Amino acid sequence: MPGFEVLYQAAALCLMYPDDDFRTRLPLLREAAPQLREFADHAALTPPRELAAHYVEVFEAGQDRSLYLSVWREAAPAPSEELYRAHGLETTGEEPPDFLPAVLEFASRTGNAGLLAEHRDGLDQLRSKLDDFGTPYATVLDAVCATLPPVATGH
């Protein structure tokens, strides 16, 4: 799954709380990751307070659209701080290591999308919930999931 590092970095930014720094990066994000242009255009046209309120409504209002991989109850273990350290990365402590933007950042910096692939089923569930909710954030998950192998369905 090489070559998707820029997309993963851009998706991580899209899935973080939309602060002023996010807004200043939108033009670069839009050009660097064409797969995310629909979301970037939406974010650029939405007033900052409205975008921030929408983020809270989508991701912080309930567990059914959580950005924490451990919520999705899969067989795959959640990433740990030790895993990040083993690859020369440090977590900030602001969010646990299973926070999806942190996992995307990990994949971007290491070129290893294994964690994303291991949690593909949960990512698909989240993508479906976002799509059902009717939020443009669903397009970010669409772009990430399009880079991953399908979920194995063997019994």
TrEMBL record:
PANTHER family: NITRATE REDUCTASE MOLYBDENUM COFACTOR ASSEMBLY CHAPERONE, NITRATE REDUCTASE MOLYBDENUM COFACTOR ASSEMBLY CHAPERONE NARJ
Pfam families: Nitrate_red_del
Name assigned to this protein: Nitrate reductase molybdenum cofactor assembly chaperone
SUPFAM superfamilies referenced in this protein's UniProt entry, alphabetically: TorD-like
InterPro entries, A to Z: DMSO/NO3_reduct_chaperone (IPR020945), NO3_reductase_chaperone_NarJ (IPR003765), TorD-like_sf (IPR036411)
Annotated keywords: Nitrate assimilation
Species of the source: Streptomyces tibetensis
Membrane spanning stretches: none
